[in-house]
């Protein structure tokens, strides 16, 4: 999808370049994002916003996103299940990428964080208490969380049920943001995003295109607050036009 838009924009720009070559690049960018906007806004639904009643049942689209996250970013040893050694590998990965040596404060803090995340995830997802979380248990955990959110929303009128996250995921999102923010300046740029995702097997061109999508052509600062909103879209939203769908670098969930 992204590359089709780029191709259309580039072709149009080439036709106009003989008239005003200085405007060629700007026209390509404007054409790209104008196409995205017109394609994603329809029937009262806009990017990242869902109108109507929140459905507790996971849709096929939601399941595809959750399965992708499970296999690419959680199951690091690729054995089809989640267990502590996957989180130990993740801890090692971020410490190695960040240069945090054994014995340093950052290393210790990261170790404690991953132990906490795993324990909370295990409490919510390991239904048969075997110390492992299968893909079926993973999806069932999210189904249960949807139902819990709806029940809770009937008791209070605070945060919409589709915008809530499990406590363990709040911590995981902060870890993920810090993993992307290689320079530690409080925001993620395209180069950092591409660099980190390459370590998870995401093609550079896909990562760059995804970043353009959710950063609105680099006009939106990707700080922790905005990154969290994108993550909520990815984990909870059934809106196929939500910008958060692109935070893993995957452009199409139909395959």
TrEMBL record:
Q: Which UniProt keywords apply?
A: Calcium
The cross-references to PROSITE patterns, in alphabetical order and at most eight, read:
EF_HAND_1 (PS00018), EF_HAND_2 (PS50222)
SUPFAM superfamilies xref list: EF-hand (SSF47473)
Q: What InterPro entries does its record include?
A: EF-hand-dom_pair, EF_Hand_1_Ca_BS, EF_hand_dom
Query: Which residue ranges does the record assign to the EF-hand domain?
Result: 126-148, 168-203
Q: Pfam families recorded for this chain? A: EF-hand_5, EF-hand_6
Q: Which GO terms describe its molecular function?
A: calcium ion binding
The protein's name is EF-hand domain-containing protein
